[in-house]
Specification:
69% helix, MP_mOase_hydro, Phenol_Hydrox, Phenol hydroxylase, Ferritin-like_SF, oxidoreductase activity, acting on paired donors, with incorporation or reduction of molecular oxygen, NAD(P)H as one donor, and incorporation of one atom of oxygen
Amino acid sequence: MQMDLRTVSIQPLRHTYSNIARRFGDKPASRYQEGTYDLQATANFQYRPTWDPDHEIFDPARTRIKMEDWYAFKDPRQFYYGAYTLARAKQQDAAEANLSFVESHNLVGTLGDELRDRALRLLLPLRHVAWGGNLNNASVCAYGYGTAFTQPFIYYAMDQLAVAQYLTRVGLLLGDETSLESAKEAWMSADVWQGLRRYVEDTFVLKDPYELFVAQDVALDGLLYPMVFDAIVGGVFAAQGGTPIALATQFMTDWFGETKRWADATIKTAASESPENKALVEQWVTHWRDRAAAALRPVAQIAVAEGADELIAEQVEQFNARMAKAGIKV
């Protein structure tokens, strides 16, 4: 008996979900599109929340930014849950390898006492800044509108927890548990940290989700991470024999380099929507940039003493150039 095999092509009835097809047409969609677009709940709410009767549960009017389509925001990293967790898993493996290398080769023992003390005084109180970043980004995710806008903020919030945990690991590597207690005491009462602490606590009461994004992710983190982890840890400390510290904090450097691409895209999209949006974003960025620069100046003095003003001026200049590329003038 002879059997002939032949190929039969079956045409799918549809190529993607209906909500994606309505926006992009009936064609194969990416996982990012399927996991992002038109997922915001918009109907079937019976009453307004009792804790905020002036707004719907999910309400674009919570921010002064106006968008014709809140799905105009796009994450250049194309992060949805699966892509995000895979990317961070690889980075965690690299970070763990770095920490293990520093510990197993006792590279901390090569650091001078003065440099190690300065690194502890600079880095460990930043755990509390990262904790504030976690709360603020979770708030933007909760009260923002449109999954394309809100989704990256919960990833950012989780990343800030990771930063706080890695700083704790660095503290235990360079010192011990008393170092963590000393850092908490410094954050609560030392004059050098009170400006930054006030900045963080003032952001806790911001109601506008987009302004909170500007204050936390754009202005504060946009100055803090390049200054601390690039200029000080990767520059000043490394030149003074502190390469093990740079190795132990490599995650923060890599993470900020990746994440600022999304922050810049979010600024550019809102500013290009309308002149009113652009003016508002420029006003917020200028205000919070100046406050962040003033709050970080005493912190920079821990590492570079008299060179703090020059270091802050360099960071502000680089920040302004970055914002110009994103389409706003500050």
